[in-house]
Amino acid sequence: MVRILLLLALLLQVSCATKYIVPGNRFLTPESQGQALRGQFEFQQTSANQLTVDTSQGTVDQGVKYSDLSRSGFLLSNSIFDQLDVYWSHIGGANSMVGLKLQFLGDSRVAKTTGHKMSIAGALGENEHETEDESVEFNLGGKEFLLLYGYRFSDMFMTYSSYSMATYSFDGDIRSSDPGLNGADPSFNTKIQSLSAGLELSYAAAFAKLEATYQQLKTNDTKDKSRIIIGYSIGLSW
């Protein structure tokens, strides 16, 4: 299973390593997996934010340009004990994030009880990239913190929401025939605040999620951007 997931992560990054990409939907619900060594895997289809360094003036001092694009990804979660999960989240072209989720209100997923659920989560990730023509090397790091709430109506239906704060850092080194760009080392920090709302439908081990997210993005030397993102995921739990 681990080898398959590592191959999937590699495939999702092929031809995307040149992109400065930060994720959109997160698909995290407040329920922990429950007990110990229980888990779930889900495939995601969502929108992401592509940020391109603006070199139109022959420098790297003009900030970044935002664009929207569709991306696939995955989320793997596994319980450490009843109320605590470790998770690995990856969106194609962005950096992988590994984090912990602690549920402090309500029962875990395996209990299948109705009622209110709340948890907190935090994740970190960092990757080094190089463009195919070796003209740019850059490091992309990220960290995010989330507060999650949900209400399970039955063993098959749950609504959930989350508020998250994330920071992504881009540090690059450019090698170019343009003397104005050669040796430049662009550095950008993107702060993202997100409000998400979603629903989860499940039957036996299978489940599906539909999620809408409102995001505000702030990057140094760049005009702020707001957007609404809709995505879905499907998966299996065990």
From TrEMBL:
Arranged from A to Z, the UniProt key words for this protein are: Signal
Annotated signal peptide: 1-19
What is the designated name of this protein?
Outer membrane protein beta-barrel domain-containing protein
